Amino acid sequence: MRKGICTGSFDPVTNGHINIFERASKLVDELTVCVFVNTQKNYLFDVEERVQLLKESTRHIENLKIDSSGGLVADYVKSHGIKTIFRGLRSATDFEKEFVQAQFTKYLAPEVETIFLLTEINFSFISSSGVRELAKFHGEVGGLVPKCVEIALRKKFGD
Amino acid sequence: MRKGICTGSFDPVTNGHINIFERASKLVDELTVCVFVNTQKNYLFDVEERVQLLKESTRHIENLKIDSSGGLVADYVKSHGIKTIFRGLRSATDFEKEFVQAQFTKYLAPEVETIFLLTEINFSFISSSGVRELAKFHGEVGGLVPKCVEIALRKKFGD
Amino acid sequence: MRKGICTGSFDPVTNGHINIFERASKLVDELTVCVFVNTQKNYLFDVEERVQLLKESTRHIENLKIDSSGGLVADYVKSHGIKTIFRGLRSATDFEKEFVQAQFTKYLAPEVETIFLLTEINFSFISSSGVRELAKFHGEVGGLVPKCVEIALRKKFGD
Amino acid sequence: MRKGICTGSFDPVTNGHINIFERASKLVDELTVCVFVNTQKNYLFDVEERVQLLKESTRHIENLKIDSSGGLVADYVKSHGIKTIFRGLRSATDFEKEFVQAQFTKYLAPEVETIFLLTEINFSFISSSGVRELAKFHGEVGGLVPKCVEIALRKKFGD
Amino acid sequence: MRKGICTGSFDPVTNGHINIFERASKLVDELTVCVFVNTQKNYLFDVEERVQLLKESTRHIENLKIDSSGGLVADYVKSHGIKTIFRGLRSATDFEKEFVQAQFTKYLAPEVETIFLLTEINFSFISSSGVRELAKFHGEVGGLVPKCVEIALRKKFGD
Amino acid sequence: MRKGICTGSFDPVTNGHINIFERASKLVDELTVCVFVNTQKNYLFDVEERVQLLKESTRHIENLKIDSSGGLVADYVKSHGIKTIFRGLRSATDFEKEFVQAQFTKYLAPEVETIFLLTEINFSFISSSGVRELAKFHGEVGGLVPKCVEIALRKKFGD
Hints:
6 copies of one chain form a homohexamer. By secondary structure, chain A is an alpha/beta fold.
C-alpha cells in the first residue's frame, strides 16, 4: 500500500490546501493530513480546532485521514510507514525553502521521497495568514476557505 | 482624475522612498502616501511622527498628500477612489512577495491595478531597518535619509 | 498628454498581450503598441502581418495605435515623446531580465520610466512561442489568441 | 493501474536521469521514459541511439518502458492513459520554466498532474550538454553517465 | 598581509561553517571568525559558549583566530585592517539578501570587498536552526556538527 | 604565490569586466584574464582582437596577464597551477548558472576554488551583447567600455 502525507500548520485550512489534498490523494492509496505543532508559535486556532476543521472539510476525500503531532516530520513518517511527503509549491522562493527542508528530511529518512505539486494558479495567492488578516478586518473570506472555516473565523472575530 | 497611492510602514521614510514618490507622482494627477499601521509590530517612530517626517520631506512634490490607516489597503483604495497602487521593486525575492500581495489585492478590489517601479540602483540597498540599525550604532545616515529624518534619528538614539 | 508604449515581437499577439494593452491603456492618454524587429531572428509572421493582426485585435481600445520599428526602443521613445514603457511580468526570472533591460534604457533615456504590470494569472502560461508550437501540431489555440490570429495560424500550418 | 512518464531529449541519458527514473518508478505501477524529438534542434545522438542507450541503462528497473515521440507531450499522455508527468527540479530557475510548462500542460490535459522530484544533490551539476562538452575535450565522464553511454561518447569523439 | 573575516551568529557552529573557514583560510594570510551579537535575538548558546565551541573546533586551521563583537561589521573590519569579508552562499534567495548587505557594507566601508564561496553541496541543508531543532527532539546531529558541539547540545537538551 | 583567473568571451571587454579585474587582482599575487573560445559561437571580434583590446585596457593593473584558450577551464587552471577562479555576479539568475558551473568545475578540479565578486551596481546593466547592440545602432558607448574598445566598435560598424 502506498502511503503519503501532507504536513502543515493549517491555521486554518484553506481552499488551496484542500485542492492539494484532493490531487495528492489520487497519487497514493492512503493520504494522511497531519497538523504539526511548533510550541514556540502562536496560533489563532488551537490544534483540536484545526484538526476538527480539517475533518469537516475533507469528508469528500475517501482515502484521507487527519492526525496531529508535536514531533519531527521525519520521525512521524518513519514510524507510520509513509514513503511520500507531498508539498505544494507556489513560487521560486517557496522552492528554495522546500529544497533545504527536503534535503534535511532525506538526511534523516533516506527512504522517504518528498514530491511537489504546483499550487493551482487560482489559489496561489491564498495563505492562512492572509485569510486570518482578512477575517480580522471582517473582509469576505467565502471564496478562500471551506464553509466550516468561514463560520469559525466569524466566531473568532466576533462578527 | 487619476489617483495613485504608495503604501508602507515608513519607519522612517528613506531617500529610496522619496525617489519612488517623485517618480510615481508624475504618473498620476494625485498621489497619496499612506502609512499603514500593523498593531502587532513594534515601531521606532509612532504613526504621528512618521506622518510628520513624510510631510516635511515631500514638500517639493506638489500633487502629493500624506495619510495613515489602520485598515486594509484594499478597503482604503476602494473608499478613496484610487485606481493605481505603486510598489517599488528591488529584487526577484521582492517580486515574489509582491506578486502574491498584488493577486490578493486584485481579489479584493478587481478594478485596482498594482504597478511596479524599479528601485533606483543607487538606493537599492537602503531599507528602513538598515537605517535604524545604523543610527543605533551612531553611524552616518546623512546620505540615506532626508535631513529631518537624520535629526529625528539622532534624537531617538541620544547622539 | 501622457504617452506610453508596449514593445515586443508579437509573433503572434496573444490574449495575454491584449490583456496588458487594455490595462496599460487606462494608465495613459495614448498608448502605442510597437513591433520591434530584430533582423537576426526568424519570425513565423512577417512584420506587416504582425502589425495587421495587432490592428484587428485591438480595435476595442480607443486610445491605442500600432507601429513598428527596426531600431532601439530608447531611440523610438525619445523621438516620439513617450515617457512610460509598460512591461508585463510573469515571474522572478522575467523580473531579472527586465531589470537589466530597464537599467539599460534608463542609461540611454534617463527621463523615461519603465513600469511593470503583473500578467493576469490565467494568461501567465501563454507565450507566442507556446502558441506557435501548439498550432504547428494542430492543437486548439482558440482560448489563447484573438480570433484573427487563430485563423492566421491555421492558414500558416495548412489546417 | 497508475501510469507515469518521464520526458526529455536524453542526448545522452545521464546518471542524474537514471536516479529520477529509479525514484519515479516506485511511485507508479508503470513508468514510461519517452524521448521527445524537436525537429529544429541538432542532436549528438539520433533518436534510435538515444532510445537504445536508455534501454541498456534502465534494465534494472522492472516497471519501466522506453518510447519516443515527435508530437506534443499533452497528446502523448492523453492517448496512452498516463495521469502523472514526473519532472526533476534542480534550481529556482528550473522551477519557473517548469511552472509555465506545467500550466500549459494543464490547459491542454486538465486531468494530468505534473509532479516534481528534487534532483539528488550529488547529481545536480550533471546535464547532457555538460557531458557532451566534457566528452568533446576527452574529459573523464565515467562518474556522470552509465557505462554504455561512456562507450558511445568515446566512439562519437574518436577516442 | 591579507586579512579576511567570516561573520555570523554561530549558534552553534556547524560542519558547514567549518568547511567555509577551511577554504577561506587558504585565500588570506590571517582569517578572523567573529561572532556578532544582536541584543534583540534570543540565542541557545551565550556568546562565551559560542566562542569556546568555535575555538575547540578550529584548532586544525593555523592562520585562524576567534573573536566576538556587539557592533557593526563595517566598523569592526575598518578598525582591524581587514579588507575581505567571506560569505557562504547556498541559494539564489541567500544571494539576494547578501547582495543588499554587501552593498550596504560597501557604502559604509568602500575599500572592503565582500566575496562569496559556494556552500559545499553535501553541507547545504545544514543550518544552525535546523541543528537546534533536531537536537531538541534528541535526533542524531553527529554528522552535522563538530564533536564538541554535539556534546554541548546534548547537555543543553538533557540527553 | 596565489594565482587567480578571470574567464569569459570578452566580445568585447567592458568597464564592468575591468572593474572585476581591478578588484580580483588585489586578492591574488598574479591574475590571468583568459579568453575562452567556443568554436560553435559567432563572435564580433576574433580572438586576437579580443586579446589585444584586453591588453590595451588593463595596462594599469600590474599583476595581470592576458591569455586565450580553446579548451576547458578546468584543464587550463590545473596545467597553470591556478587555485582561484573569480566570477562576477549580477543577479540571482546569474547565481544559479554559476552554481552549476562551479560544481562542475569542482568535480573536474577539486582543489580549485570558484569565488564570486558582486558586480558594481553602476556597471550591473552593462553586458558585451548590450554594447554590441548599442554600437550597431551607432549609440553612445563611451561610458560603458574602455576607449580602445569604443574606437574598435566604431570601425566595425563603419561610423
